[in-house]
Amino acid sequence: MSALALPAMRMTTKGFRTLTLTQARLLLREPAALVWLLLPPALVVVFGNIPAFTTDQKALDGRSVIDVYVPTIAAMVPLLVALTALPLTMASFREKDVLRRLAVSPVPAAGMLAALLAVIAAIAALGVALIIAIGALAFHVKAPADPASVTAAFVLGSGAVFALGLVVAALARTSGAASGAGVPLMVLNFFFSGLYFPVAEMPRALQRIGEYVPFGAVMAAWSGDGPLWRHLTVLAAYTVLGSLLAARVFRWE
Amino acid sequence: MTVIEVDHLHKRYGDLVAVDDVSFTVGEGEIFGILGPNGAGKTTTVECLSGLRSADRGSVRVLGLDPRADREALRQVLGVQLQESGLPDRITVREALDLFASFYARPVPAAPLMDRLGLTEKAGARYKQLSGGQKQRLAIALAMIGGPRAVILDELTTGLDPHARRTTWDLVEGIRDEGVTVVLVTHFMAEAERLCDRVALIDSGRVVAVDTPAALAASAGQTQRMRFRPSAPLDEAALRALPEVVSVVRRGPQVEISGTGNLVQAVTSLLARRQIIAADLRVEQTTLDDAFVALTGHSRSV
Fold this sequence. Notes:
The complex is a heterodimer of chains A (253) and B (302).
Chain A: H1 5-9, H2 13-29, H3 39-48, H4 51-54, H5 65-95, H6 98-103, H7 109-139, H8 147-171, H9 175-192, H10 204-210, H11 214-223, H12 228-249
Helix pairs in contact in A: 2-7, 3-5, 3-7, 5-7, 5-8, 5-9, 8-9, 8-11, 8-12, 9-11, 11-12
Chain B: E1 2-13, E2 16-27, E3 31-35, H1 42-49, E4 57-62, H2 71-77, E5 78-81, H3 93-102, H4 110-116, H5 132-144, E6 150-154, H6 162-177, E7 181-186, H7 189-195, E8 198-203, E9 206-211, H8 213-219, E10 224-230, H9 236-241, E11 245-251, E12 254-259, H10 263-273, E13 278-285, H11 288-296
Parallel strand pairs in B: 3-7, 3-8, 5-6, 6-7
Antiparallel strand pairs in B: 1-2, 1-4, 8-9, 10-12, 10-13, 11-12
Helix pairs in contact in B: 8-11
């Protein structure tokens, strides 16, 4: 966190650091919340061991299936943690009246959200790094043709789904409600990221809608479908509006 | 100096009036009790004091601050223990104290606080492993960690066994001895009698009376009641003639006399003059319980 962000959250550096460390410890003591994170690296290993997936194909501009799939699988990581672990953790604090206790201490809502976000985003970054490492080292996955815009879209896309996750985390009264809102949003993003069904084969109208869903916009940016600036603007808008909204509507109980 | 000022506080949830009209002031260094049956509006009053709820009407000032508008400043100087509140199952006592301490500008050191509250040997224990009494002591510690000038303790001893309750009472007196003003919310009359300098009796969202526990008990009318079995037939008219005696009732072999002032001495010297022995003598003082019934017109048990 920058020195600028902390006064905006009305929290001291020491307070924010202690809160973040405590959240990290608590999350690691209850690793069940993170078990879904094993799925994406496992997928890379499985795909990498299918011979047909590792041979280069003309239809894919001389790339292999796994070259194309690694970014999609990497995208599962921020989606999974942003829309499950993040809102579920906050909602369980709310359910157990932990937030009610914190509400009478000086900790601000934005600080609560930001500390948990810092922990969850670090976990996501580790997960993505692991997937890229497995792909590159074990299966010689090729770097994307345009790494800068691919990375930009990925980072902004992650920011957008984290912001969505923050809104759910700010509002869900119970862990059940957090799943009820988070999981459909996650599935929607999976759908438009082409995980179930290639985006290129969807009806044109559906594709256009998908460009306004965070990971639909990421995929469109990656495939060069539509102007890059527009996709990045959509993602940045989600990030900024979502985080501001979350801090504003945060429920302490 | 006035630490808390509540003036015609009114709060409703939809059609339900939780607090109708509550006013009181709390002076510096007092233990002030808010006393009343469940559903009287005690917790809502406390939630308005600590800034969790906004008042629909009336005003609340705590240490000169508006709990809603000056939320941040108030948090630094007011410690709150809430009736319904929890901590994560897996956080340890030490971690919880360090976490809360980090939010305050001038926290008190955690180690002596744990010592005083008997939590030192539980420092590494997780929240869900703590007993009810230990959780309550941790809640007090968390309310005190910021070095507050005033604390609100809501139903502190509910659910504790008698021993843990007495230990907790000593802790509350210790807090006051440090110069911290205490607002104690309770529905135990005995707790209020033991701890509070003054109490506000609240019933159905209204303040029925504000005074010292002794004055409230006295206002309930007869302050004493004695009961005994006389060794020889008793002249009731002579008893009634005593200025201290208000009523004489016979219950089988027992006589029950209610009255005021120096009742016991007046009755026993009369008996002595007539060489009557009072067997199985019991003397009861009127309590806050009696005061509550007298002031509200109904029993406190709901």
